[in-house]
Amino acid sequence: MLYKNFSLKDKNTFGFEVFAKKFFEYESESELIDFLRENQKQPERILHIGEGSNLLFLHNFDGIVLHSKINFLETKEIDNQEVIVRVGAGIAWDRFCEMMVEKGFGGTENLSLIYGEVGAAAVQNIGAYGVEIADIIESVETIEVKTAKNRYFTVKECEYGYRESVFKKSKKGEFIVTAINFRLQKNPTLKLEYGALKTLLADNSNPTIADVRRAVISIRESKLPNPKILGNAGSFFKNPYCCKEHFEALQRQFPKMPYYPVTIGEKNFSPIQKLSAAWLIEQCGLKGHKIGGAQVYHSQPLVLVNLGNATPQNIAELSAEVQRQVKAKFSIELETEVNFIE
Ligand SMILES: Cc1cc2nc3c(=O)[nH]c(=O)nc-3n(C[C@H](O)[C@H](O)[C@H](O)COP(=O)(O)OP(=O)(O)OC[C@H]3O[C@@H](n4cnc5c(N)ncnc54)[C@H](O)[C@@H]3O)c2cc1C
Predict the structure, then answer these.
(1) In a mutational test of the pocket of ligand 1, which residue from 16, 114, 220 has the highest number of ligand atoms less than 8 Å from its CB?
(2) pLDDT per residue over 204-241, tens digit each?
(3) Which residue in the list 53, 163, 213, 319 is annotated as catalytic?
(4) Would you kindly state where each structural domain of the chain is located, as residue ranges?
(5) CA 126 to centroid of ligand 1, rounded, Å
(6) Per residue in 1-46, pLDDT tens?
(7) Which of 4, 29, 194, 221 has its CA at a distance of 20 to 30 angstroms from the CA of residue 112?
(8) Which CATH number fits domain 2-68: 3.10.350.10, 3.40.1010.20, 3.30.43.10, 3.40.50.720?
(9) Where are the alpha helices (DSSP H) in the chain?
């Protein structure tokens, strides 16, 4: 379906009323290929979106916004330990997690209730409670925008890092994810090291993946604002890395400063610590700080919310103000996690 002058209000979780010159939704890979071939004749700017839960549209989009409704799920047996599950990019991420937990396949449970769709999850390398999607991806199926040809990426070729992938860096905007192959466990090993999760399951001597999913959902529901009630895009900033010397200097000045050990996927950075962006923002006294209708969320300062009357510029100004104050107090540059769309 091709729509013109299409409102994106319901397609971004900040709830901003911005318009796309054109909006195209497709249900199969072949529909997408036909569309891209047609677009080659008179190329227009393309932006592929999922649920818009990590986007900040700064104004109307002068081009074509694409959205996938590719919706299938296939299970391929490998052995009695593992299973490969192939999933269409248009399925809601949490629906996929729910289905995997119902089937008893382990791997997605810690990533329950993250907003968005399967395709975007592979672009973003979503992560929560000690797990990243990169840990369970086998390969990613894509179509190249320029050539409309298929291309498979092995997990290694996806170059995953902390909320990073090749699709956000060197090949940004060049490939559209159509499906993902996940490698999941039939006899799941649970990952329960993460603080709040460990506490919530402390009384359960033999938790299942369904218990983990329930615990994750309950923690997330108590901590994060629901975008249907208060527009937001989750964590607005990434937790920053900090080199050893700077980290030690900060620790002398702020002995209670929290930090995270770098995870396996980030081993290259081993002498570096990861700091809590939320803590840094809170220490600047920015909890509840407002610019126009945009606010640093009172109970989770990593989240910027639209109080109902914010403009995209209010959010962008608030983001810049948070970055400026954190830099001035800690000499740390906060990088945004949210994708700004010009
Ligand atoms: C309340 C809340 C809590 C959140 N918590 C977390 C969390 O715990 N962990 C976490 O990692 N994230 C979290 N997020 C962020 C968000 O859920 C993820 O980034 C999610 O993967 C975005 O999915 P989406 O479908 O909304 O993608 P969008 O926001 O629409 O797009 C994100 C990026 O992916 C690209 N893209 C989308 N679909 C495709 C495709 N098929 N092919 C190629 N590129 C594509 C877009 O161009 C864009 O660059 C949270 C968001 C909210 C609102």
Answers:
(1) 114
(2) 889 999 999 999 999 999 989 999 999 999 999 999 99
(3) 163
(4) 2-68, 73-222, 228-341
(5) 8
(6) 899 999 999 999 999 999 999 999 999 999 999 999 999 998 899 9
(7) 29
(8) 3.30.43.10
(9) 29-41, 93-103, 118-124, 195-200, 209-223, 244-253, 277-283, 312-330
